[in-house]
Write a structure and sequence with these properties.
- The protein has 417 residues and is α/β, with parallel strands linked by helices.
- It has two domains: 179 residues, Rossmann fold; 165 residues, 3-Layer(aba) Sandwich (Rossmann fold), CATH 3.40.50.
- The chain has 14 helices and 14 strands.
- It has a six-stranded parallel beta sheet, with helices on both faces. Strands 11-10-9-12-13-14 form a six-stranded parallel beta sheet, with helices on both faces.
- Strand 3, helix 4 and strand 4 form a beta-alpha-beta unit.
- The longest helix is centred in the middle third of the chain and has 17 residues.
């Protein structure tokens, strides 16, 4: 059975994301938004891909079949998956069945690329369901979604030159995958999957909004809604630590080689929580530099919070166009200042001298100077920065503010709670 139909007149949210577990920042926002709207009495209907790590839900029977790029599939399955990446008839069929029974007031999608596919948007449009899409990355502009390639930040595809994604093998450095994503992007643009069928785009950072406008999107299609954190659920520690913490994925675009070199130059202790494709490279670099670095592996929940509370400051040394990293808000909620690179949406979330520091992205010497300055700063001043960050998230980046902003957007699209 597919669940019970919504009560007449009850507001209902069809909430769409590839994964139904806490895989990354987009999934955290998706799941937390679901919980917030359920708390307000909305009926929330998740729609995702089947996956072994998914959280339990009575709605999983209408989820689409799994596609995992890292899995080894036979040739027949690979061809089926390639077709689904571009246009999933399965997703269209299943979402239509859900809509016809549940009659959702609105559909709100997060990450659907490559798995569920934007083929669902046209079907939702046909069924007169307004569609909101939160842009956690740059996919509607950049086929490879990061505006990043082998030589750093990249905007070669601006103006429609999408062939660059294949030319520079921007997807996992694979000619085949990059060619497939080029085909996907061309097809979706010709079909108008986003431009014709998405009612409004939500952007968590002003930087992303401006970047999409620069790439030719109409400003009025976008609404800036910052991410949020439940600070009440995170307890800070007034005693500041002596180390600097990074937590997140260990990937080239995160700027961790710059952080290790800067840490060694400044002579400070680093603690790195997370896993990812660059872990072996980073461990080798740390050993060669003689840096004071502790690699903690994957941490989550209370374990991760304890790591953050052990810090003097949290460092976000990114070297790509970050959107609105949850890392910053979580650090603030735990009472720690943030040292961030001046790239993407990071500068919007750091008030220099008040809640942390900003330095030029990729600049080892500048980061080393900031680390040394923060280490030499009196503990009371560091603690005051942490308190200022927490105060900021408690007033601006709250779940209540997020819900009210989203409800206002839904109301603009004719949906009333």
């Amino acid at each position: 059975m597919m669940g019970h139909a919504a009560a007449p007149g009850a507001a209902s949210l069809l909430s769409i994301n590839n994964y139904h577990y806490r895989r990354g920042g987009a999934e955290v926002v998706y799941l937390e938004q679901n919980a917030l709207f359920e708390q307000r009495g909305w009926k929330v209907i998740p729609f995702a891909m089947r996956h072994e790590h998914n959280l339990p839900t009575p709605w999983s029977e209408h989820f689409v079949d799994e596609i995992e790029f890292g899995q080894r599939y036979g040739m027949a399955r690979q061809l089926v998956n390639a077709a689904k990446i571009i246009w999933s008839t399965e997703a269209r069929r299943k979402i239509e069945a859900v809509v016809r029974v549940q009659r959702p007031s609105i559909a709100h999608a997060h990450n659907v690329y490559h798995h569920i596919s934007p083929a669902i948007f046209g079907k939702l449009h046909e069924l007169a369901v307004p569609v909101v899409l939160t842009l956690h990355d740059l996919k509607i502009a950049c086929p490879a979604y990061k505006m990043l390639t082998h030589d750093g930040v990249c905007e070669r595809c601006r103006g429609g030159a999408l062939w660059n994604v294949a030319r520079h093998r921007c997807v996992k450095d694979s000619a085949a995958l990059s060619a497939l994503i080029l085909l996907e992007s061309v097809a979706h643009r010709l079909l108008g999957c986003y431009r014709r069928h998405v009612s409004r785009f939500v952007v968590p950072s002003r930087f992303y909004l401006e970047k999409f406008v620069q790439w030719g999107w109409p400003r009025e299609r976008f609404t800036h809604v910052p991410n949020f954190v439940d600070a009440a659920a995170l307890q800070p520690d007034s005693k500041v630590g002596d180390c600097f913490v990074y937590f997140g994925r260990l990937a080239p675009e995160k700027g961790l080689q710059t952080l290790l070199r800067a840490g060694a130059q400044a002579g400070v202790k680093l603690r790195i929580a997370g896993t990812g494709p660059q872990e072996a490279v980073l461990r080798a670099l740390s050993a060669s530099l003689g840096a004071d670095v502790e690699f903690l592996g994957y941490r989550s929940g209370a374990d991760l919070h304890a790591v953050v509370r052990s810090a003097r400051a949290v460092v976000l040394p990114s070297e790509w166009y970050e959107n609105a990293p949850m890392t910053v808000m979580e650090a603030y909620a735990l009472g720690r200042p943030v040292i961030g690179a001046d790239i993407g949406g990071i500068p919007e979330l750091v008030r220099p001298g008040e809640t942390g520091s900003i330095y030029p992205s990729g600049d080892v010497g500048a980061l080393a100077a900031v680390l040394a300055q923060m280490r030499a700063m009196p503990d009371a001043q560091v603690a005051a920065m942490g308190r200022a960050g927490r105060s900021w998230v408690e007033t601006e980046f709250t779940p209540q503010n997020y819900v009210q902003r989203m409800l206002a957007l839904y109301a603009e699209l004719g949906v009333r709670a």
